[in-house]
Amino acid sequence: MKKKFTYTGLVVLSTIVLVYGCSKGYDMTATPGNNMAANIINGDMAQVVIQNMTLMPDTLSIKMGTTVTWSNMDMVMHDVTELNGMFYSNNIAPGESYSYTFAGAGTFTYRSMYYPSMKNGVVIVSY
């Protein structure tokens, strides 16, 4: 009986994550590690989804002044830490998000400090 409950709970939780993600406009069919284009809204916002221990997209090219939002669609806690100390999110709980506005141009590499085996993300900011 316990295995059935665990399986049922997993199915229910997966359904909730899928419905939540679709309702927020996330591409729930994206494959991990690809360089798909960011979900750009009004030209000044971009979205990175953390799901299945990957960043989607893992490389993001934006214009200066764009706000990037990282949304945690995993079932575990994550953080977003820029390697040179430019930004740090603190804990991002499952279903929560963190946003940062890029005021200057440059290339910014970031990672989840909790999971060093995850591929680093890169934000390339141009004028």
Compile the SSE list and pairings.
Elements: H1 2-23, E1 45-51, E2 54-56, E3 59-63, E4 67-72, E5 81-82, E6 97-101, E7 106-111, E8 121-126
Parallel strand pairs: 1-4, 3-8
Antiparallel strand pairs: 1-2, 4-6, 5-7, 7-8
Name the descriptors.
127 residues; alpha/beta; four-stranded mixed β-sheet; Immunoglobulin-like; disordered N terminus; single chain; 17% helix; 1 helix
Describe this structure in words.
Residues 1-38 have low confidence and may be disordered. The chain has one domain: Cupredoxins -  blue copper proteins (Immunoglobulin-like). The strands form 2 sheets. A 4-stranded mixed beta sheet has the order 2-1-4-6, with no helix packed on it. Strands 3-8-7-5 form a 4-stranded mixed beta sheet, with no helix packed on it. The N and C termini lie far apart (59 Å). The chain has 1 helix and 8 strands, in the order αββββββββ. It is globular. It is α/β, with parallel strands linked by helices and 127 residues long.
